[in-house]
Amino acid sequence: MLNVNNVSLSFGSQKLFDDVNVSFFPGNCYVVIGANGAGKSTFLKLLSGEKDADTGEITKDKNARMSILKQDHFQYDDEVVIDTVIMGNKRLYDIMQEKDAIYAKPDLSDEDGIKVSELEAEFAELNGWDADSEAATMLQGLGIDMSKHNLQMKELTGSDKVKVLLAQALFGNPEILLLDEPTNNLDIQAIKWLQNFLDSFDGAVIVVSHDRYFLNEVCTHMLDIDFNKIKLYPGNYDFWYESSQLALQMSRDQNKKKEDKIKDLQAFIAKFSANKSKSRQATSRKKLLEKITLDDISPSTRRYPFVGFTIEREVGNEILTVENINKESNGETILKDISFRVNKGDKIAFIGDELAITSLFEIINEKDQDFTGEYKWGQTITTSYFPKDNSEFFENSQYNLIDWLRQYSVEQSEIYIRGLLGRMLFSGEEALKNVSVLSGGEKVRCMFSKMMVNESNVLVLDQPTNHLDLESITSVNNGLISFKSNILFTSFDHQFINTIANRIIEVFEDGTIRDISMTYEDYLEKYYN
Which of 61, 266, 289, 494 has the highest Cβ tally under 10 A? Predict the structure, then answer.
């Protein structure tokens, strides 16, 4: 179907990967993973033909149609929504345009008649008569109401544009799908619909994503970019992660007998062979797993930051009370009569309307005074706030990382500050970089360092995994699971929410809430199945 043969690529003196050989087959979902900067998105660009390799070749079956999730959300602003979806099958859309142009002529020549007859035959072969209904069904499945199908793209919100571009990529049964971060900005129902679609998809899917739950649900193989190589593993993300940790343990324990290591590997494979990941692939995947040997798995070069929060003082009985908070913006209701009380031990995930949740977090963190109602923090409470937009902490700053973090720390010594930064993977000369030139992921790690030195007993986090790689997401996830006090947070990451939260507050588009004490998966089963 799609073959990569002896492919290498470098940027200047930096080699991304070398001598890559891998084949992609129908019915499988391949997930490309690697540290930030490893070349995941670049590899997709090689597969799509957008970028050329230094050496080697990439070939696909002549008749196989490749479809790509577009990243430019403004590219189709002047197009009608449903037409934008149908454009996913370029040949079909071109035929539709050409047919319409011929039929619009006042007089048809014999040549026109022959041409339109040929076009009609190809149109039918491409299932053109069902194109509108197929596109409409996809849009509705992703949560785009029929009333929006004939609007222009520029009339949609950013999150709705993302859904339309996803429908465009999936439209028309392509043989090969390339998806770069397909779950970004998708709501609960849209993600579930996408998972179901991919589970029954007959073609080959190659995806980059930081959503671990999504990866475990849909993928059959992992493509790991590491050591300047790309290695194929059968199984899902959890299998790859656990196998890399097992390999690391084995490499550290050189004195352990090989027979014992083989037993460990066999037990490990038996554990994962039964895990769900596209059920129709389960048998073949199990056979592949059973063929894995000690030499087939390698410890990863990835580094995991340390994220751990301590509290200076335990919370009292009064933590946070919110009463009848209302907020409007440009005549629209954002929050409507919001009331809730935070109790000891609550780790609350706020899901639903993104704007409303950010507005609520800004209100209770004294960043927004334009509201009615009231809230009250308990006398024992100290808070640390992780805002969605952290630009005010870094723009126009002349500080290096050491001096930047020193602003927020009671302990001022450079040894102490460097120790904290080292835990967040800023060591040696990296700690002297100016904070204004940091990447998005580096700034997020700085914000976590700032929160860690505060030793607050309540954490409020607005999309804390944005810009982070899988390693950092795992570290933040573990740090918040271990935190011994209260958390209020929002995230699109299913696994992140499910492993941290014991209470769910869903904020709806009309500004109201539903407040239930239960795990995220129990909540989804109760309200979204």
Answer: 494
pLDDT at site 72: 87
Bridge partners, residue 5, by sequence: 57
Name which of 477, 490, 410 is nearest 448 in CA terms: 477
Q: What is the pLDDT of residues 451-501, one digit of tens each?
A: 999 999 999 999 999 888 888 999 999 999 999 999 999 998 999 999 999
What radius of gyration do the chain's Cα atoms show? 26
d(CA 289, CA 309): 38
The pairing of strands 29-33 and 332-342 is unpaired
CB 50 within 8 A of CB 239: no
How many Å apart are CA 520 and CA 526, to the nearest integer?
Answer: 10
Side by side, the strands of the sheet bearing 204-208 are 66-68, 176-180, 204-208, 29-33, 221-226, 229-234
CB 1 within 8 A of CB 178: no
In this prediction, residue 320 carries a pLDDT of 98
Q: In what order do the strands lie in the sheet with 486-490?
A: 383-386, 458-462, 486-490, 347-352, 503-507, 513-516
Q: Which residues contact 357 (CB under 8 A, 6 or more apart)?
A: 350, 351, 462, 490, 507
- How far the first Cα of the chain sits from its last, in Å, is 35
Mean pLDDT to the nearest integer, 195-224: 91
How far is Cα 359 from Cα 344, in angstroms, rounded to an integer? 24
Task: Tally Cβ neighbours within 10 Å of residue 297.
Answer: 21
- Predicted confidence (pLDDT) at residue 145 exceeds the cutoff of 50: yes
Cβ contacts of 107 within 8 Å, gap of 6 or more: none
One-letter amino acid of 261: K
Report pLDDT for 13: 79
Do the Cβ atoms of 28 and 234 come closer than 8 Å? no
In whole angstroms, give the CA distance from residue 99 to residue 52. 35
Residues in the chain: 529
Supply the mean pLDDT for the chain: 89
Sheet with 55-60, strands from edge to edge, namely 14-24, 2-11, 55-60
pLDDT digits (tens, 9 = 90+) for 26-70: 999 999 998 877 889 899 999 999 999 999 999 998 889 999 999
Question: Cα dist. 207→33, 102, 169, 235 in Å?
Answer: 9, 40, 12, 14
